[in-house]
């Protein structure tokens, strides 16, 4: 591996420019500041980097003191996937809730306010929105991150989100091309496969991306998925047929193409991150997202040198790398005047997203209930740092509210014992994907028919309970909206 000094050749600078690495800590490490001086043009932020809006603004100012034309990216979808509010839960409902309301003006306003908050903290690229169509209810990683299962609905809300976010001067990165919705595998762990035919893909998966392109999305993120109808050999991130042939040439997209996290097992396990990065740039990607746990100088240098060596060996055309770097720099220079939306637009949207089903007259809870959170394992995109549920919000309205987390078969007996004679509020997340949740609800409702059920995932299972509330997402603000209904305020 070659060691290269600050201010070295154009090839080396271009190789650094196409990387979007993460890092650890709430201030910039010395190695990152050095690489910015050598050509690195992007950084990625995660929950580990954020303690408060004020701290985040100071961090981005520290980074821009080294390089003012810097892309500061974040994975802030709102809803379940939040980095700004990773320890408290999001102030904005996620895509599924917005799709449930189906008001594109509301979606645009929510995205604009989210963009305004990001811009105020110095963030100018958001790895959002998810344009995936949740056509497979068993999908373990998309779910409520999708606007819905309908192509036309997802397309119009994807476009509205892009327009709203970019109106605040924050570039949208529409993901996960060509569509991660019809999968039953999480690409963090393995390579998902979509076996839909070409006609279905064009009518369904690609519709939201066409809408995003028409709306002017500044970036598109590729998916680590195998789609044999498009390319039987390479996952989309590494496929020239998909990134260049389909996205660039057929769909006419001319903005930045960013890979999903290159360290995800769908790429890392089969190709290794160095080879995967070279193949992705060769296929037409312009930027390599390096997040997850690979957040150190060694990783950046390994990827930089892999790209340089591939060019020198004739495996990666130098003009392709130069073109990719130019697209990164072009987006880094992009700015646009922002707009302002109502400060509580997130709560307004969350309230409108609720779907209520009553079995007879419902009496609001006025004495302290017991909240039983039936908790599934968190998917990697969401992470396990961000709280979910509604117990804290309900406790503000009904003092004395108690809660317990349950995550195994046979939980019903424990819930009934812990609840005593208090009203039970059972909170689930994607009941249809977890048989133990369904059996737990069966037992609870048989013993306590007045139990309230709150579904904070995709509401695929039939509603049941004295009151069933579908929030279409587990953001903090969704929990607050549900708590208001339960307490009758």
UniProtKB/TrEMBL annotation:
**Gene Ontology MF annotations:** hydrolase activity, hydrolyzing O-glycosyl compounds
Q: Which Pfam families match?
A: Glyco_hydro_3
Glycoside hydrolase family 3 N-terminal domain: residues covered: 40-330
Listed under GO biological process in this entry are: carbohydrate metabolic process; peptidoglycan turnover
Which keywords does the record carry?
A: Glycosidase, Hydrolase
What family is reported?
Belongs to the glycosyl hydrolase 3 family.
Protein name listed in UniProt:
Glycoside hydrolase family 3 protein
Look up and give the organism this protein is from: Streptomyces himalayensis subsp. himalayensis
């Amino acid at each position: 591996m070659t060691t290269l000094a600050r201010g070295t050749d154009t090839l080396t600078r271009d190789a650094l420019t196409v990387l979007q690495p993460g890092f650890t800590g709430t201030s910039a490490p010395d190695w990152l500041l050095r690489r910015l001086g050598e050509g690195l043009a992007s950084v990625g932020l995660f929950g580990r980097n954020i303690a408060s809006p004020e701290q985040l603004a100071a961090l981005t100012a520290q980074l821009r003191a080294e390089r003012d034309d810097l892309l500061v990216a974040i994975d802030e979808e709102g809803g379940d996937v939040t980095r700004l509010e990773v320890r408290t839960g999001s102030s904005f409902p996620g895509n599924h809730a917005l799709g449930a309301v189906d008001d594109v003006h509301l979606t645009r306003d929510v995205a604009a306010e989210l963009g305004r908050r990001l811009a105020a903290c110095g963030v100018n690229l958001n790895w959002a929105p998810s344009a995936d169509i949740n056509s497979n209810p068993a999908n373990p990683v998309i779910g409520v991150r999708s606007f819905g299962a309908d192509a036309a609905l997802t397309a119009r809300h994807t476009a509205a989100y892009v327009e709203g976010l970019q109106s605040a001067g924050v570039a949208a990165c529409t993901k996960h091309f060509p569509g991660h919705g019809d999968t039953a595998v999480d690409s963090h762990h393995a390579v998902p496969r979509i076996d839909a035919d070409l006609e279905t893909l064009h009518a369904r998966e690609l519709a939201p991306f066409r809408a995003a392109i028409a709306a002017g999305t500044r970036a598109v993120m590729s998916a680590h998925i195998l789609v044999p109808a498009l390319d039987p050999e390479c996952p989309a991130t590494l496929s020239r047929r998909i990134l260049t042939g389909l996205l660039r040439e057929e769909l006419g997209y001319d903005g930045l193409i960013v890979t999903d996290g290159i360290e995800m097992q769908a790429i890392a396990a089969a190709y290794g991150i160095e080879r995967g990065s070279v193949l992705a740039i060769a296929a037409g990607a312009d930027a390599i997202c390096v997040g997850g746990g690979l957040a150190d100088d060694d990783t950046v240098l390994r990827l930089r040198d892999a790209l340089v060596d591939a060019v020198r060996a004739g495996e990666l055309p130098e003009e392709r790398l130069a073109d990719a770097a130019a697209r990164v720099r072009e987006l880094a220079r992009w700015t646009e005047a922002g707009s302002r939306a109502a400060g509580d637009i997130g709560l307004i949207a969350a309230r409108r997203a609720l779907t209520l089903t009553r079995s007879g007259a419902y009496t609001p809870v006025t004495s302290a209930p017991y909240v039983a959170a039936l908790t599934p394992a968190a998917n990697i995109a969401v992470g396990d740092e961000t709280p979910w549920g509604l117990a804290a919000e309900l406790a503000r309205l009904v003092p004395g509210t108690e809660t317990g987390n349950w995550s195994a078969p046979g939980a019903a007996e424990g819930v009934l014992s812990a609840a005593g004679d208090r009203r039970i509020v059972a909170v689930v997340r994607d009941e249809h994907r977890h048989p133990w949740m369904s059996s737990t609800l069966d037992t609870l409702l048989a013993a306590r028919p007045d139990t309230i059920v709150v579904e904070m995932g995709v509401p695929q299972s039939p509603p049941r309970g004295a009151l069933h509330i579908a929030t279409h997402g587990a953001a903090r603000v969704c929990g607050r909206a549900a708590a208001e209904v339960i307490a009758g305020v």
